[in-house]
């Protein structure tokens, strides 16, 4: 990855890579279909995610979930280490701040690696996993939780609409057999796995439409074969609503 990246198209295809980014007084706003992890290196970044404001200074960080609209600017300039990733374990870090000193030390090292002409491949390969580990452990009650994290599974699916997802794919993510997952889905969501998956795709499509994206582009990004197929699916859902 290059050492500096410009902000690209909102909701671009899922990525997985580290970069250094500088932010200035020009206000930006977008959303994308993957997790974005921000760790402050210098200055202060003013961030607003889905209407909620945050400040990211050196050692502070935040995880932006797929699809979340966020605005950003820095009146005095800021530099951040940024990770763009579709890896589902990052859903556990959404809404949690990192352990500042540990994360800052790691972020500075990774930033140093990115700034070298011949970036150390091993460091950058393992950097995302180390960054997740440095974010700190889950609270004890959360780490004992064995229920399916349906919101996280939905985010995982959103990053993969272009693929023909199966019950076995979803079951593997939550470490269950396909039959076990299918039963859990019926018990907890009141529908079969593929019905649930279709609903998640429609929910995501409506979110994108809410951001003013055209029907054709939404259909492309959510894996529908055509705009008319998306429109028909939305009409069927509306007709089936009580």
UniProtKB/TrEMBL annotation:
InterPro entries: AraC_XylS_family_regulators, Cupin_2, Homeodomain-like_sf, HTH_AraC, RmlC-like_jellyroll, RmlC_Cupin_sf
Domain of life of the organism encoding this protein: Bacteria
Family annotation (Pfam families): Cupin_2, HTH_18
Domain (HTH araC/xylS-type) ranges: 151-242
PROSITE patterns per record: HTH_ARAC_FAMILY_2
Record keywords: DNA-binding, Transcription, Transcription regulation
Official protein name in the record: AraC family transcriptional regulator
Origin species: Variovorax rhizosphaerae
């Amino acid at each position: 990855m290059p050492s500096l990246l410009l902000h690209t198209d909102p909701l671009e295809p899922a990525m997985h890579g580290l970069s250094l980014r500088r932010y200035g007084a020009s206000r930006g706003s977008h959303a994308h279909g993957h997790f974005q992890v921000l760790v402050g290196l210098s200055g202060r970044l003013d961030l607003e995610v889905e209407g909620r404001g945050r400040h990211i200074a050196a050692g502070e960080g935040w995880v932006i979930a797929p699809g979340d609209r966020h605005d950003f600017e820095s009146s005095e300039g800021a530099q951040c280490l940024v990770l763009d990733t579709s890896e589902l374990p990052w859903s556990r870090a959404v809404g949690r701040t990192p352990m500042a000193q540990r994360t800052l030390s790691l972020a500075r090292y990774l930033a140093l690696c990115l700034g070298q002409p011949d970036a150390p491949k091993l460091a950058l390969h393992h950097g995302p996993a180390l960054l997740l580990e440095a974010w700190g452990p889950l609270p004890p009650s959360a780490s004992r939780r064995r229920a399916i994290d349906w919101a996280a599974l939905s985010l995982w699916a959103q990053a993969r609409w272009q693929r023909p997802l199966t019950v076995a794919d979803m079951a593997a993510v939550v470490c269950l057999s396909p039959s076990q997952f299918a039963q859990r889905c019926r018990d907890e969501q009141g529908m079969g796995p593929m019905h649930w998956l279709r609903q998640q795709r429609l929910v995501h499509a409506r979110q994108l439409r809410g951001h003013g994206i055209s029907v054709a582009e939404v259909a492309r990004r959510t894996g529908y074969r055509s705009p008319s197929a998306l429109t028909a699916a939305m009409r069927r859902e509306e007709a089936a609503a009580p």
